[in-house]
Fold this protein.
Amino acid sequence: MLEKKVTVNNELGIHARPATLLVQAASRFEADIFLTKGDVSRINGKSIMGVMMLAAELGAEVLVETEGTDAQAALDAVAELLGNDFEGQI
């Protein structure tokens, strides 16, 4: 299992549109992807409802965990989206 802590840089946090983009990106990978923020732990990164439950605001630290054949690529893609303000995506 790979993991990385990422700070949310989207001014409005992970609201509906960023959550959708994150789930779409995560769904391109075979790896299992889990997100944790505070007391909300191991949310399925491929579940829109789960990602919305994180309620990750600007500056929140999110732990991204990936496991599977393309775990590194999945970790890199999800971490980049979270850390780069979904630049060019919203």
Strands lie at 2-7, 32-37, 40-44, 61-67. Residues 2-83 form a domain with the Histidine-containing Protein; Chain: A; fold (CATH 3.30.1340.10). The chain has one domain: 2-83.
